[in-house]
Structures are given as C-alpha cells and as structure tokens.
Write a structure and sequence with these properties.
This protein has 289 residues and is of the alpha/beta class. 44% of the residues lie in helices and 19% in strands. The protein has 11 helices and 9 strands. Strands 1-2-4-5-6-7-8-9 form an 8-stranded mixed beta barrel. Helix 3 packs parallel to helix 5 and helix 5 packs parallel to helix 6. The termini are far apart. It binds ligand C2E and magnesium ion (3 copies). The site of ligand C2E has 23 residues, from strand 2, helix 2, helix 3 and strand 6. Keywords: Membrane, Transmembrane, Transmembrane helix. It comes from Sphingomonas olei. This is EAL domain-containing protein.
Length: 289
C-alpha cells in the first residue's frame, strides 16, 4: 500500500498534471476569444455605510459565461489572464464598462473597480483611467480603484509614481483583501489609500465569543482611522454580524447580507423605484451572482 509502486504513483501524477495542463491550455485559448465574442459582463455588489445605513456605492465584479462550461469564476480565470498577458485588455474593458454603467446612477454613488497588479505596473494606466472616466462623463471622485498588496512587489519608485499619478486624476484608492497578503504596515505609511477593505476571512467567525478576529478588525480600524482611511468589512453574510461590524468601527459593509452582485440594469431599476435615492437598508438586492 504505502510503498506502492513508485512508477504507478508517478504515472498517476503525470496524467493528472497533463489533464490539468490541457484543461488550462483550453481555458487560455477560450479566454483569448472571450472579449471578441462578448462573453464578459459585470455584476455590481452594494457597499453600505454603517452610519447612514444607505448604499453609497457598488463594486464591479467580472463574470465570464463560457459557451460550453457556463460560468467560470474570476478566481480561476483572472490568474490565467494575468499570466497570458490578457489582463490589460480585459481590465481596460472592465474599467470602461463599469464607468459607463455607473455614470447612469445617481450622482454621489460610487463605483469600485478591481485593478490587477499587472495593470498597476503599466505606465499607461493613468491615461486609460482618464479616458474611461472622460468618455463615460463620470466624476473622478466617484471612481475607486481596488488594488491588493501584491502591487508592492514591483519596484518601489514606480509604484509610488503610479500612486501619485492616480491620486492626481482624483480617483479614490482602496487596499483590497487586507490581511491576507504581505500586510507590511510600511505599505500603509507610503501609499495614499482612501480605504482599507478588511478581508472576509477576518469577518468569518468574528461574532463568536472569544474569537480573535473581532480584536484584529478593531485594531485594523484603529490604524485606518489614525491614517484617515475608511474601512469596509468584506463578506458580511449574517444579520447579527452587522451590529458587531458597526460596533467595531468599520465605516462600510459589503456582503451577501445586503445583497449579492446584480446587473447594472437591476441596480438602476432599484434606484428608480426608490425615487432616485440610494437604497435603504434592509432592501435586499437578491440576484444570482
Ligand atoms: P474581491 O475583489 O475581494 O471581491 C469580493 C468577492 O467576494 C467577490 O467574489 C464577491 O462575490 C464575494 N463576496 C461578496 N460578499 C460575500 C459574502 O457575503 N460571502 C462570500 N462568501 N463571498 C462574498 P467574486 O466575484 O467571485 O470575485 C473573486 C475575486 O476575483 C475578486 O475578489 C477579485 O480579486 C477578482 N476579480 C473579480 N472581478 C475582477 C476584475 O474585474 N478585475 C480583476 N483584476 N479582478 C477581479
Ligand atoms: Mg475587490
Ligand atoms: Mg476583497
Ligand atoms: Mg478577493
């Protein structure tokens, strides 16, 4: 059993790896066609202010409906797009589409767009952002770019140059998935973030007595407030987590408790239903993701 047949074991691993590689190659080929074939769309998830209990913005999330496989998760295809050099074109499409759709929403409502570290390393990014907001007619202050700590892996002077260029345009910057990556506090000192998004792994279980996550969230909030940054708790799923997150001092909540991501037209219809005002709390935006 345990000793098994060495060759058998390695043959098994080779077959598995080959199947994985072939599968990946096929996905990669299909991904190259996806933009031209119009297979992408964006869904939007509400971001709620804990103090006003109103929806103050939405995060755009990319969806790919593959012609035969159906929905493929961005967690699966974004890394492939990053490795094959497709993320630039896809990311630009996301920016332009999100800005154009968000320009239809009531004025103060913000739109958050995820930006890959590879896009962030491209000196053309500020020009692409400027062009996207100008063509959409969207005020720069309504656009928030979400980046992860991985942007700090690239050379220091070019990333600080990029931060300055983006802030110069007037867009907001959010540090996404905080706590899951390298989480050097030096990053917070250097980069002009407007917001820290606390990863959902800290929200998970925070409500349970004796759980350390609540203490971690409180510490992150204290740090963020000291630096003049807002905080969004990600992945809030349960009603009783709302009060806890508010009591821990987070300024914003995003999660299934307030709504799953939905299409832009549905968001617009909801605004219209409510006199063009931002959504009231408790109005569930239940849409298939
Ligand atoms: P993210 O930017 O951290 O986005 C939040 C993810 O958490 C989304 O997953 C969202 O659907 C999910 N989520 C929100 N509320 C809850 C909740 O209450 N419970 C749970 N379990 N999950 C919740 P999604 O849409 O599958 O996206 C996964 C990741 O893919 C994103 O994480 C982001 O890193 C990446 N991604 C998505 N769209 C884009 C894009 O346009 N560009 C880039 N570069 N990355 C993207
Ligand atoms: Mg994000
Ligand atoms: Mg996140
Ligand atoms: Mg994430």
């Amino acid at each position: 059993a345990a000793k098994a047949d060495g060759r058998g074991v390695s043959r098994f691993f080779r077959e598995e790896m080959l199947a994985g590689a072939q599968n990946r190659k096929r996905l990669e080929d299909d991904l190259r066609q996806a933009l031209a074939n119009d297979e992408f769309h964006l869904v939007y998830q509400p971001v709620v202010s804990t103090s006003s209990e109103r929806v103050v913005g939405y995060e755009a999330l990319l969806r790919w409906v593959h012609p035969t496989r159906g929905a493929v998760s961005p967690a699966d295809f974004i890394p492939i797009a990053e490795e094959c050099g497709m993320i630039e074109a896809i990311g630009e499409w996301v920016l332009r589409t999100a800005c154009a759709e968000a320009a239809q929403w009531p004025d103060p409502v913000r739109i958050a767009v995820n930006v890959s570290a590879i896009q962030f390393a491209n000196p053309a990014l500020p020009a692409i952002v400027t062009s996207a907001i100008a063509s959409a007619g969207l005020a720069a202050s309504r656009l928030e770019l979400e980046i992860t700590e991985s942007v700090f892996l690239t050379d220091d002077s070019s990333s600080s140059h990029m931060f300055r260029a983006l802030k110069g345009i007037g867009v907001r910057l959010a540090l996404d998935d905080f706590g899951t990556g390298y989480s050097s506090l030096g990053y917070l000192k250097k980069a002009p973030f407007d917001k820290i998004k606390i990863d959902q792994s800290f929200v998970r279980g925070a409500i349970q007595a004796g759980n350390r996550n609540a203490a971690i969230i409180r510490a992150i909030v204290t740090l963020a407030e000291t630096l003049g940054m807002e905080t969004t708790a990600e992945g809030v799923e349960q009603q009783d987590e709302i009060a806890l997150i508010r009591d821990l001092g987070c300024s914003h909540i995003q999660g299934f408790v307030y709504g799953r991501p939905g299409r832009a037209a549905e968001m617009l219809a909801l605004f219209r239903e409510q006199d063009g005002a931002a959504l009231a709390v408790g109005h569930r935006v239940s849409r298939a993701a």
